[in-house]
Every structure is written in structure tokens, then in C-alpha cells.
Design brief:
The complex is a heterodimer of chains A (304) and B (251). Chain A is built from 12 helices and 2 strands. Chain A has 304 residues and is an all-alpha fold. Chain A has 2 domains: 54 residues; 224 residues, Orthogonal Bundle (MetI-like fold). In chain A, strand 1 and strand 2 form a beta hairpin. The two termini of chain A are 42 Å apart. Chain B has 10 helices and 10 strands. The longest helix of chain B has 14 residues. With 251 residues, chain B is an alpha/beta fold. Chain B has one domain: P-loop containing nucleotide triphosphate hydrolases (Rossmann fold, 3-Layer(aba) Sandwich). The model of chain B has no long low-confidence stretch (mean pLDDT 92). Classes of the chains: A mainly alpha (304), B alpha/beta (251). Chains A and B meet through helix 7 and helix 8 of A and helix 2, strand 6, helix 3 and helix 6 of B.
Chain lengths: 304, 251
């Protein structure tokens, strides 16, 4: 810039633009932080009022959940077991199938087939959960009932199957991505030793992608725990501890939805109970997320 | 005459789609000798190397014409199982690519899936010794292969190939990702290995080719320009192209 005349002097406008952009971006980041803090604050605050009347030990340890009728009981265990049975049932459906889809897509499918199947799979993730709920109610449940008379209209199995289908894209997509990211050289190294395709896939590619695979399982599990609409429709509203997947149960989210849609007076104990349940749910998914982060770090392989 | 060579190509042309990258190459590789494939980038030497264990099979558009003979048998046209065939031909890649498991399992995996009946501990020890890695890793056989240095990883990959007891070992620029010291270690190792194995090595490093190989083949734009004894080829090349390349005038 030896010839000053050819260059604009202080570039005031650009400097202003820079500072405005920085502020806007900061605001965007701030909104997400504030929302999180706000939600947690309210969760803790309302739960605090709830736990002033119901002891934490009664809430966590007793097995009778009857918050809406006299005599009231606030033992959360039936909701937790209901939630977990749906979540584990969903994983039982989604893990093998999701991993199978991922292995097929990343290792076996031709690029053409992959270009068709992968978008289809992602469409599955875009279907509203209320649609899944009615799918469970009008298709899966009647199917289960056609196998055995003893299956109730609202049952945990139907909800688990449909939630399994819902989390399938999560598992398949993440597993596919991590397996596709396994370096080609590693596969070639295995093939050069005279390995057959499935030996390479199951003993080299899958172990190398383990961190992503485990993380997808946990992510799917915490999504299954948090799923509301489909389980409310399919699993019913019968809070009970049962090992029979063909009976109705109630999940934590379904209870929250039930109370929110009813005419429960603001500030009453049953109103506050949904915050206590929500807090517990939040803590459960928080632990899952922390675990998934730990696993990703612990099992991450260093490839260049 | 074919008995002189372990591996031999006859009028071999290789293509990716419509793009022919190797043209009518006929070349033989002597048993228990090191042959270097040299030439500028894109001359087809790596593609040629990768046909010797049919690694190009994974590329959809790859096609070939001509013959690749392993001990007189065409590896593309005779009814052979390609995974069984690959047991005879080990490969060491440009970048070290150990599996994400222990040093020991890196060695035993290949033999295990191929039904090796012998003693695995012994196999690990002899393979690592042959790859001059035993003394450095004997106390940590159960730690991850990825914890080793780059040079050690590459020697682990060589040990892994040796464990399969192949007759041919293909090396695709095995030192290009390594520092000079590790390179020297690998070169020394290659010289030792040629007593028992036929080695074909692709290299960009002409000094390396001169140091370690018995024969050298020079390729240019898909053609095999010249092949012969390394000392001969480097001291008095027949073709002007070869002379220019080894003289550092291009490439």
C-alpha cells in the first residue's frame, strides 16, 4: 500500500459490520444457553415444591403411582419401568436391524442402491411421531392380537416395536457414517491377508467403528426414553410394574402428556408431579448423553 | 522359461473404465529377489502391483486383458478362489495400516481366519523377529498396534504379512510415510527378507531402488520402458527416457 490514494482509508463500514455480526452470533448462542438454563430452573423449582410435600424416598422407592385419584400415591417406579421396558424393547428391535442396515449400506450395497435406500431411511426419521402412534395402534397391535388373544389393546410391545422403527434411522445412519469413515486401507490390509468379505466387515470394520456404533445405541436409547406421542397412543395409561410386554403400561413421558392435556389446576400437587417426573427423565437422558460422550472418547481409534 | 519366474505378466493391459493405465506389459519376477518398480506418478506402477493380489477387484470400473501368471497359473482366468490365492501374496501398503487391536492379534488374525494349525505364540515371535520388531515389542504384545511409532507400525504390517508365510510380498511405497531412520530400518529388513521371499516394491525413491533391488523395471505413462538388473539399468540404461528419469531430469 505504498500508493495511499488507491486504497480506502479507515474501512469504517467493514469494521461496524464485523462487530454487528459478532453480536448477532453471540445472541444466537445466548438464546440456546438461556433456554437450557430457564428450562432447568423451572424443572428444579417446581420439583422443589413437589418434594416439599412428597419425600424423595417415597417418590423414588415406592411402586404405586396414583396421582390423580384419592388416595394419592406418588411412587415413580411404575413409570420408570414402563419407560425402560419400552426403551429396551425398542433397542431390541432397532439394534440388530440398524446395524444390519448400516453394514449392508456401507459394505455391500452398490452405490446406486445406496443412493436409493439411504434417503428412504432418512424419510423414516421425518415421519411425525403421532403417525407412528396410530401405525402402532391400527397395524402393529391388531397384528399382535391376531397372534394371541391375551394381548391387550394398549400394550408395551406395540409401543416398543414402533419406537424401535422410529430410532432405526438414527442407529443405521450413524453406524453407516462411522463404518464408511473406516479407512479403505484398513479393509485392503485385511483382504490382502486372504480374508473373506464378512470376516473383514465383522472383525475389522465393525471393531474400528465401535465408538460410533456404541454412541448411536445410546443416542437411540435416550431418544426412545424421551419419545412421547407414539408411546402415549400405543402403550396406554396404566402405570404398573409388569414384565409382560403385552399388558398396558404408562411411560414417564406419557404421564406428563396426560396431565398436560387434562384440566389439572396450576399449582396443585399433581401438576407439580409432572415436573418431578420431567426432572428425573432429564437426569436419565443426561446420564445417557454423558455416557455416550465417554464411550466415544474411550473407544475412539486414532486414524489419520 | 516360466519356471524362472514366480510371477509373470503377459501382454497385460489394465484400465479404469475407458482410461487404459497400463499398456501391454510383459514382465517376470524372479524367485527370492527384490524387484523395484519405478517411474513418475501416474505411470501405472501401483495399479500393476495391485493386480498381483487382485486388490483392484474392489474397483468397479477396473478391467484387464492379458495374463497374470502365478507359478504358471493365470490368477484371473483359472478357476481359483481369490481369497485363497491372496494367502500366497502378502502386501504392505503406503501408509501403515495395523488393525485396531493388540500387536499379537494383528499377527494372528490372518493365520487364524485362514485355519492355521500351528502354535500361535511361536508364530507371533518368529514373525516379529523376521520383521526385526521383536525386541522392541516383546514386553507389550497385548498393547494396541496403533500405539507404536509409524516405522514400528510398518514393520508390524510386514510381520503380519510374513505370518501368512506367503511366497510373494508386494510393497507399495512402504517408506513414503516414514522418517529416514525408519526407512533405513525397513530397507535393511527388505534385504534380509529376500532370502526367503520374492519381493516387488513400488518406490519413488530411486536411491532406494538402487540400494535394495536386484532387478528394476521402469515404467512411463503405462508402458514398461525398460527392465533389467538394477546395477545395469542405473549405470547404463538402454533408453533415453530411463536415463532422463534416473538422472532426475523429470518425475
Amino acid at each position: 500500500m505504498q500508493n495511499q490514494a488507491l486504497w480506502s482509508g479507515s474501512r469504517k463500514f467493514q469494521k461496524l459490520k464485523e462487530s454487528v455480526v459478532t453480536r448477532i452470533l453471540l445472541f444466537c448462542a445466548g438464546v440456546s444457553v438461556l433456554t437450557t438454563v430457564g428450562i432447568n430452573l423451572i424443572l428444579f423449582l417446581e420439583s422443589f415444591w413437589f418434594f416439599k410435600e412428597i419425600s424423595v424416598s417415597e417418590f423414588l422407592l415406592s411402586t404405586n403411582w396414583a396421582p390423580l385419584f384419592e388416595p394419592r400415591h406418588f411412587g415413580v417406579i411404575p413409570l420408570v419401568t414402563g419407560t425402560l421396558s419400552v426403551a429396551f424393547g425398542a433397542l431390541f428391535v432397532a439394534l440388530p436391524m440398524g446395524l444390519g442396515i448400516a453394514v449392508f449400506l456401507s459394505e455391500y450395497a452398490s452405490p446406486k442402491l445406496r443412493a436409493v435406500v439411504k434417503p428412504m431411511l432418512e424419510i423414516l426419521a421425518g415421519i411425525p411421531s403421532v403417525v407412528y402412534g396410530y401405525f402402532a395402534l391400527t397395524t402393529i397391535t391388531p397384528f399382535l392380537r391376531s397372534i394371541s388373544e391375551s394381548v391387550e389393546v394398549f400394550n408395551a410391545a406395540s409401543a416398543a416395536i414402533v419406537v424401535g422403527i422410529m430410532v432405526l434411522p438414527t442407529i443405521a445412519s450413524i453406524c453407516d457414517d462411522t463404518m464408511t469413515a473406516v479407512p479403505k486401507s484398513l479393509r485392503e490390509g485385511a483382504f490382502a491377508l486372504g480374508a473373506k468379505k464378512f470376516e473383514v466387515v465383522s472383525q475389522v470394520v465393525v471393531p474400528a467403528a465401535l465408538s460410533g456404533i456404541l454412541a448411536s445405541f445410546i443416542l437411540a436409547f435416550s431418544r426412545a426414553i424421551g419419545e412421547t406421542m407414539a408411546v402415549t397412543l400405543a402403550a396406554g395409561a396404566t402405570p404398573q410394574v409388569t414384565l409382560n410386554p403385552f399388558e398396558g403400561i404408562q411411560t414417564m413421558t406419557a404421564y406428563i402428556a396426560q396431565v398436560s392435556m387434562g384440566d389439572t389446576p396450576h399449582g396443585s400437587i399433581e401438576y407439580q408431579s409432572i415436573f418431578a417426573v420431567g426432572l428425573l427423565l432429564f437426569l436419565m437422558t443426561l446420564v445417557m448423553n454423558l455416557m455416550s460422550q465417554y464411550i466415544v472418547k474411550r473407544f475412539a481409534r486414532r486414524y489419520e | 522359461m516360466s519356471s524362472e519366474y514366480v510371477l509373470e505378466t503377459k501382454d497385460l493391459s489394465l484400465s479404469y473404465g475407458d482410461n487404459q493405465v497400463v499398456n501391454n506389459v510383459s514382465v517376470g519376477f524372479k524367485e527370492k529377489a527384490v524387484t523395484a518398480l519405478i517411474g513418475p506418478s501416474g505411470c501405472g506402477k501401483s495399479t500393476l502391483l495391485r493386480t498381483f493380489n487382485r486388490m483392484n477387484d474392489f474397483i468397479d470400473v477396473f478391467s484387464h486383458s492379458g495374463e497374470v501368471l502365478f507359478r504358471g497359473k493365470d490368477i484371473y482366468n483359472s478357476p481359483l478362489d481369490v481369497t485363497d490365492f491372496r494367502r500366497n501374496v502378502g502386501m504392505v501398503f503406503q501408509k501403515p495400516n495395523p488393525f485396531s487391536s493388540s500387536i499379537k492379534k494383528n499377527i494372528t488374525w490372518g493365520p487364524k481366519i485362514n485355519g492355521y494349525q500351528g502354535d500361535f505364540d511361536e508364530l507371533v515371535e518368529t514373525s516379529l523377529k523376521k520383521a526385526s520388531l521383536w525386541n522392541e515389542v516383546k514386553d507389550k504384545l497385548n498393547s494396541s498396534g496403533l500405539d507404536l511409532s509409524g516405522g514400528q507400525q510398518q514393520r508390524l504390517c510386514i510381520a503380519r504379512a510374513i505370518a501368512m508365510d506367503p511366497s510373494v510380498i508386494l510393497m507399495d511405497e512402504p517408506c513414503s510415510a516414514l522418517d529416514p531412520q525408519s526407512t533405513a530400518a525397513i530397507e535393511k529388513l527388505i534385504t534380509e527378507l529376500q532370502e526367503n521371499y520374492t519381493i516387488i516394491i513400488v518406490t519413488h525413491n530411486m536411491q532406494q531402488a538402487a540400494r535394495i533391488s536386484e532387478d528394476t523395471a521402469f515404467m512411463y505413462e503405462g508402458d514398461l520402458v525398460e527392465v533389467g538388473e538394477t546395477s545395469q539399468l542405473f549405470s547404463s540404461p538402454e533408453h533415453k527416457l530411463t536415463q532422463d528419469y534416473i538422472g532426475g531430469r523429470f518425475g
